[in-house]
Amino acid sequence: MSKPKVLIAFHSRNSSTELLAQAIAQGATAEGAEVRMRRAREFVGPEVMRQVPGWAERASEMNAKYEAPTEADADWADAIIFGTPTRFGSIASELKAYIDSLGGLWFQGKLNGKVGSVFGSTSSTHGGNESTLLSLYGPMAHLGLIIVPLGYADASMFAAGTPYGATHVSHKDSVMPGAEQLAVAAYQGRRVASTTRALRAAQPVAEVA
């Protein structure tokens, strides 16, 4: 059987979400998956980005490392893992714009039955990690994805993260994800890859006439 194909489509401004994405990719790869990492792009103008010191520079650095997610990436994938920082308790507009661009695939039913999972980060304690991840469950249901949460099926979950997906609190970008948060993220990658493989194995093989 071919490797499960996992798309990690994320947005990150100050690397917290990016580091979780990298750990998820490592976990999925360790479980035998083929992984694509993609960073959703800003769509605001430079005048807005200049209001936040370092925003444009960090965006340029990350965009040099990761391609932008496309409709073709979602079509290719067996599983899609969305990652986002919290913006006022919900999804970052950059990632939401990518999700909104998948309407063509949705209309054709091409996303039905793919695995979906989520992860994210906030700047402050109680800043909306869980509400943000749950706000992504709605769009994933509309796309027809089979939502895979983390539960408490791994020891790492009792030290960090949420049952909805890997998370991190950066305390105003002063703390990057540590070993406990990255362990949850790696577990998420393994769980998504193994679940995807199991679902693919259970699909009936089309008969040749």
Walk me through what this model shows:
This protein has a single domain, classed as Rossmann fold (3-Layer(aba) Sandwich), CATH 3.40.50.360. The chain has helices at 16-30, 46-49, 55-65, 71-76, 93-100, 103-108, 129-143, 179-202, and strands at residues 5-10, 34-39, 79-87, 90-91, 115-122, 146-147, 167-169. The radius of gyration is 17 Å and the shape is globular. The protein is of the alpha/beta class. Strands 1, 2, 3, 4, 5, 6 and 7 form a 7-stranded mixed sheet that branches.
Major β-sheet profile: 7 strands, mixed
CATH structural class: Alpha Beta
SS class? alpha/beta
> What is the H/E string?
EHEHHHEEHHEHEEH
Shape-level CATH architecture: 3-Layer(aba) Sandwich
Structure summary, number of beta strands:
7
Number of domains: 1
Helicity level? 40-55%
Rg value = 17 Å
Q: In the CATH scheme, what's the topology name?
A: Rossmann fold
Q: Give the rounded overall mean pLDDT.
A: 93
- Can you count the helices? 8
| Contiguous runs where pLDDT drops below 50 for at least 5 residues | none
Sheet-strand content, in percent, reads 15-25%
**How widely separated are the two ends?**
22 Å
Which homologous superfamily in CATH is the superfamily? Flavodoxin domain
Shape: globular
